[in-house]
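Hi all, a correction to my earlier message: I attached the wrong file for NADP oxidoreductase coenzyme F420-dependent. Here's the right sequence:
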Amino acid sequence: METNTQLKVAVIGCGALGTAIAVGALDSSSETGLGVKQLVATVATEPSKRRVEDALSNHASRVTVLTREENVRAAKDADVVLLSFKPIKRAEVFAVPGFKEALRGKLILSIMAGITTKEVNRLIYGEEPASDSGSPLQAVRAMPNMAASIKQAVTLYTPNPGTTKENLEIASWVFSQVGEAYQIPENSFDICAVLVGCAGSLLLLAIDGLLDAAVAEGVRRPEVQNLVVNSAIGMMNLVPAGDHPSVLREKIASPGGCSIRALLELEKLGVRSAFTSAIMAAAERSKTMSSSR
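and the right structure:
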């Protein structure tokens, strides 16, 4: 597949993340020569079909939305196939006659959480994978976060061994349309992916707790929500600027002040270790998902 080309893309199971990636790729005015000539999305229900059609309406001439009964048709006509359905659905999706055959020879991008490239290989070629041409499966495992919907995602991706340089460039291009994309080794993918995919929800839980305190003190949540969120964003931006989180925390916590009292209370409640345990539990779950069939 040439990198200087217009791609035919299929998004199988086009939920929220799949839709965000589709919008990003269709919106792109890339100078690399890559672009989307035609995009076909498949969904489970008619209401979902209307939702995706509406989300992609700015590119209606290049978009077709089908129901999941036509997954085979969508994959067969594509150069690049994005697998964006829930991992628990994979056995059902791949059991449809002709589906796995339709994927062979295509670039496969999988955002199924916890599903390794080895498992994608098994799903397509069976327990002893081998393509008709003898070449390795062209597949890339990825994990974007929900900020893809505003094109501020962090996406991690890792290729199946033997994936060509050209196909890696296509994968990087696709995920770069919704934010920043980073290639990492698959042996560190589970922990890194849950940091990208789950950490945001944990931080949102912390923000929700802060807002609860404001309500308890008599302040309406809408009055302080932006103050808390924007303050947190500003502080987080100091970390990539060069400050270690613990150093920043020390700078804020002046002797005898309010911040150190709050931090000591969190330490007493075990909040730091609770965050660590939560992420480690999520990583362990990710490691087992490929074997849960």
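Sorry for the mix-up. The radius of gyration is 22 Å.
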